Amino acid sequence: MHVYDRRLRWPVPDDLPVKVAGRIVDRIDRRSKYLLFRLGAGSLLVHLGMTGSLRLWSSPPPRRPHDHVDIVLDSGATLRYHDPRRFGAMLWAPEPADAHPLLRALGPEPFSRDFDADYLWRATRHRSAPIKLTLMDNRVVVGVGNIYANESLFRAGIRPTTAARRVSRVRLGRLVDAVRSTLADAIEKGGSTLRDYVDSDGKPGYFQLDYFAYGRAGLPCRVCGSAIRSIRQGGRATAYCPRCQP
Ligand SMILES: [Zn+2]
Known about the structure:
The protein has 246 residues and is α+β, with helices and mostly antiparallel strands. It has helices spanning 16-20, 117-124, 131-135, 146-156, 169-189, and strands at residues 2-3, 27-31, 34-38, 42-47, 53-57, 67-72, 78-82, 89-94, 229-233, 236-240. Strands 1-6-7-5 form a four-stranded antiparallel beta sheet, with no helix packed on it. A four-stranded antiparallel beta sheet has the order 2-3-4-8. A two-stranded antiparallel sheet has the order 9-10. A hairpin with a 2-residue loop joins strand 2 and strand 3. The N and C termini lie far apart (54 Å). The structure holds zinc ion (ZN). The site of zinc ion has 7 residues, from loops.
């Protein structure tokens, strides 16, 4: 591992290249927005921040500005970390990685068995915050950002301003299904809202999910024709249909 600039969101530890050198990558997992390169005694914990990317090069071109880290594999390929804004992270997480301070308070993955109606019901009984903000809280469930929270609540027919603890178990069950179907559709359509998104081969991804609520303030609801309303919650835009989301 060659670290050319340590100044990411947290400084890349001085001893990280020594820790990873010579180890075998058993597998690569993802937890929330963190990538975990499993290296036996620990994991290389990577976060792409807002603008970071990892590209795998069979023979890397000369370094460009913002190429901060190279990991050279036995095959000769180079995994290169590029990050203009340097909000990403590259850290060491000893086993068990789930106990790392950045990971241990995270809620379940939305596609995991742990995320079901019973779980969400228990997790929300004491929460008076609006259900939309609760759904976007990483301690409750990870992976549900602003767009997906808006769309999931539309699909579940739940008003985003409803206090989380007032949403019934039946409706929370519908919300779990809606979160999964919304995310699954978005993944299938290519995933990202960022125009500069590229995958590890450098191919762009396009987000083409047809929104029901998000970004449609004032337009007729695709289901009932009522005007979509827009409010702000926690500094973010919330859009909902007053008739479909009572
Ligand atoms: Zn409607």
